[in-house]
Every structure is written in structure tokens, then in C-alpha cells.
Design goal:
Low-confidence stretches: none
Number of helices: 7
Shape: elongated
Distance between the termini: 36 Å
Order of helices and strands: HHHHHHH
Helix content: over 70%
Number of strands: 0
């Protein structure tokens, strides 16, 4: 069987894929998720949640409900390098932090947590901050592509200038007579 070409790291919207590449993407999507590693990390996370539930139940309840977007991102993104959860979780936690501080500086009791969890604006702030994580995750590849392309264009111009300077010094036979860059 012929080896399939490598799939580019550029999002599919910007590069049209031929039929063979589409089949390769479909085969990759149908593979079962990798089960390597992560078990010990999940064990430590579970122990941490249990310890938090025992010693600070209101904080644990608020964090479990508030960090749902990060938990979902972790479960959904099971690739070799799951960056989705690592992008969403810090911003999700940043959106949750004002309410954790309100809980910690006031009365760290369950009625306070219930009051926070029934407030629509609390949910709005928490989920908008997680949405900002999604925007960073979705937009950063395009930003980096733009920045790297501009950097490469600048380098190409410098090399062309150097090539023309060398031609002026050494003659047209240097570089094969055509612009090689």
C-alpha cells in the first residue's frame, strides 16, 4: 500500500485537501483515542478533588461547577499534545477567581456557593472567560502563520538584496544567472 502524504498543520479551511488527504484525515478521526499516559495525572487530580471536598467543600463545589468547560476540553482533546485544555483552563480559572475570592473572604459556606451558582452573571463571566480560551486556541495558529510569513518575507528580501550585491561584485555567472531565491 502506498504511503499517504503528510497532512499539513494548517487548518483545513485554508488549504483544500485532495481526495487521498481527505481519506487520511477520515482514517485518523476514526482511530480510537490514545490511552497512553494520563492515568497517574487523573489519579492525582481525583485525590486533590477528594481532599478539597473534605477540607473545603464549598470551594470544591464552586470549582467543579465552574471548571466544567476545562473538564470538557480535556475530555474532548485526547491527542498526543492536548493543548485545548491547557489553553482554556487558565482563562476559565481566571473567570472563576473573583467568585472564589468572594467565597474565601466572606463566609465560606454552602449558602454562599448556592447564591453564586444561581446568579446568571457569575455563569456569564465564567463561560465568557472559557470562551476567550477557545478564541485564543482557534486564533493563535492564524496569528502565528501571519507573523512567521512576514518574517520569512523579510528574510527573503534580505537574501535577494545580498544576492544582487554578490552579482554586482562577482558578475552574472554567480548564482546561475537567474534569481534562485
Amino acid at each position: 500500500m502506498a504511503k499517504l502524504p503528510a497532512i499539513p498543520a494548517i487548518p483545513p479551511q485554508s488549504v483544500p485537501l485532495d481526495a487521498q488527504a481527505r481519506r487520511a484525515v477520515a482514517r485518523r478521526a476514526m482511530r480510537p483515542p490514545s490511552k497512553k499516559g494520563g492515568g497517574f495525572q487523573l489519579f492525582l487530580l481525583g485525590v486533590g478533588v477528594i481532599a478539597l471536598a473534605v477540607f473545603a467543600a464549598p470551594t470544591c463545589v464552586l470549582m467543579v461547577f465552574g471548571m466544567v468547560p476545562s473538564i470538557v476540553a480535556y475530555v474532548v482533546d485526547r491527542g498526543k499534545r492536548p493543548m485545548l485544555a491547557f489553553t482554556i483552563a487558565p482563562l476559565n480559572l481566571a473567570g472563576l477567581m473573583p467568585y472564589l475570592l468572594e467565597l474565601w473572604t466572606g463566609h465560606d459556606q454552602m449558602p454562599t456557593v448556592v447564591h453564586l451558582l444561581t446568579n446568571v452573571y457569575v455563569w456569564l463571566v465564567i463561560y465568557l472567560s472559557a470562551g476567550a480560551g477557545w478564541l485564543v486556541f482557534m486564533g493563535m495558529p492564524q496569528v502565528m502563520t501571519f507573523v512567521l510569513q512576514r518574517s520569512l518575507d523579510g528574510r527573503k528580501e534580505k537574501l535577494k538584496a545580498l544576492q544582487s550585491k554578490l552579482r554586482a561584485d562577482w558578475g552574472p555567472q554567480v548564482g546561475g544567472g537567474e534569481d534562485q531565491i
